[in-house]
Amino acid sequence: MTGSCFAERLEHYLPLTEKERTALARLEDSERSFRRGTVIRRENDRAHEIFVLRSGWMYSYALLDDGSRQILRLHFPGDLVGTSGGAFIDASDSLAALTDVKLCPFEKGALRVLFEEHPRLAALLFVITQAERVSLTDRLASLGRTSARSRVAALLLDTIDRLRVMKRDIGQSFHLPLTQEEIGDATGLTSVHVNRMMRVLVEDGLISRNNSTITINDERRLAQVANYINRYAELDTSWLPAPR
User: Fold this and answer.
1) 5-130 CATH, one of 2.40.370.10, 2.120.10.80, 2.60.120.10, 1.10.10.10
2) d(CA 184, CA 195)
3) Which of 54, 80, 92, 236 gives a 20 to 30 Å CA spacing to 9?
């Protein structure tokens, strides 16, 4: 991939100027590769870096007192990862590679320069952060109040909608590299229960499965099952300041 992966994601919401794209590309000057399963940063590590994910999938997670793991969020190419480091000296969660990944780390002080010189980018990141916060609030409600079938359906819809930000022609099918255990860690279910719910969604005609490829056959009905709202489709950028 050439240019800025991060800029490509932001341009889903509004066109950027050449100066803005150049400023974002500077965040991706350095690149590191990690193999699937690598823990890139642990909870309570010193959080002096933030990352742009250029390729592959990651997840953030928390380890609970009983040794179990709660996957908090999946991360896809173009995402800004480890942003809790902007608020805290020590990391509030752990980061791991779900597939082989390429990451661009940068010192979090680089965001100060970006925000000072490009306030429109700062405002756009604020808008996107609010959309992500609402999406996580939806997920919290789902984990606490909906059925296992709804939780799995919501995870599938959230995944494909977020992938569409970078791949608008993705259609109805996508590769899902999560194991049943990992899906369970994201939805609060056992791997056996995940397998059962996936079979139910297939039997209901809502999705099809071919190894790790998921095809959503009836997106409207699946959204009803999941009580799901796409928080990434349209964001209000009308109030953002003019670019410098």
Assistant:
1) 2.60.120.10
2) 9
3) 92
